[in-house]
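This part of the workshop introduces the protein records we will be handling. An example says more than a description, so a record of this kind follows:
>
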Amino acid sequence: MARVARACYVAFAFAAAITDAQAVSGSAWFNSGSDTPFGQTYNMGSYAIPALEPIRPCSEDQTSACSTTSTAVLSEGFTQKIASWSDTPPYLFANLVIDGYSANAYMSDPVSLNHDSIHFVIGAGVSVNRTVISNVSALRLTAPAKTMLVKSPASFVSSYGPYVVSELVYGAKFLCRYSLKGRHREDGAYLRNLFKSITADVFFNASMAVEFESKLQQAVAESKLVWPNFECRVSGGPRVAIPPLPAPLELGKIFQTWNQSLLTQPSSLAMQRLAVQPISELQVVKEVLLNKSSTEALPISSVKRITAKTTQSLSNDLALAAFAKNSALSATDYDCAKINMTLRSALGDVQDAVTSYAIRTEMLSGADWSNLQVQFGQSNYSWLEGHDLIGRYGSLMKYCDATSTTAPVTTSTTTSANFLPISGCKSFKVSMMAVAIAGLSTILIEA
């Protein structure tokens, strides 16, 4: 079983490497939330006033823009051990592929990336149904929208948004994790050494699962571990019963059963991500802009198609910023911060700076995104703040190096039913064609 699990993870990593080039060169995906209006305008996360006439299925109308829905189950799953920031790239990439970009993805993620924790993660993404607009250029504006466009392109973008939601993907996701965090600052090194032999195979390797639980008991007995700390989130797909604190091997079996059930009979699919195209690609918009000066047309003409490479760069940096925020928050519970109020305040400032950065990112306009994309294309990443924020955290923690510190003694077991499953490793397959068509690249499970 260990060999199977290991092969499963290697296959996942290989798929990520193969499809990374495809993902970053294609169009970006954005997190869709739960009520994204298909075939309507999109204002970078804040849904705009409907600006387009209804879109009929292509089976009913092939003379203009129409929609088609296809079903193609693509299933990818992974297990991972995250013990440091250097372990995060596969996890970050998987989330981006499954969920699409979101400025807040890592501000409330169940896997709280930080300096002081070790995470054992099992998860999967499943993409099942895709609804796509054919012939986007033929989309028609409503009369009020066209009137505003003719009057003022800037007002049009402000009211209706600079993009059109051209594609939606429905599926499911499954994510569970065990998090190990010490009671004292110096416990981090102890836990990393103690669990050094435990790998991501722990969910499928019986002997390793037993060893994992034995080490948990040892760490708790020596007051080196805050335990339990377990959480699951499942969105879309069949209902799944997850105990408050299952053993790793039990969780692995639940995971495989859930995934197989989804693949056999897809149900209760959740909206996962969306793709957009600039409103300037509509023929009616092009015709209106022909009669505008370059200055008048700029609010629309300056908006470019966003690539996956752009969202990946920004998403990774936001994850690094979240890593700094979570680490700073954890550090406020150590003795060094409790006895040094200046340090404690500075750690709070780091957290506030990260929150402000995420808010600024969330408020980027279509033109802002286009400008960032140009800068990134020129290898200019000065707008990003993640490295500076993690540097601030690291500098502050020097004041704790000589201090024995204590973390809060709290426990946590959480299971929330809002995610989804993956196929078992024995049926683990990577469909490069499906990946390319889906614009994905690693972790997808379609039911």
Observations:
- The CA atoms of residues 172 and 236 lie 4 Å apart.
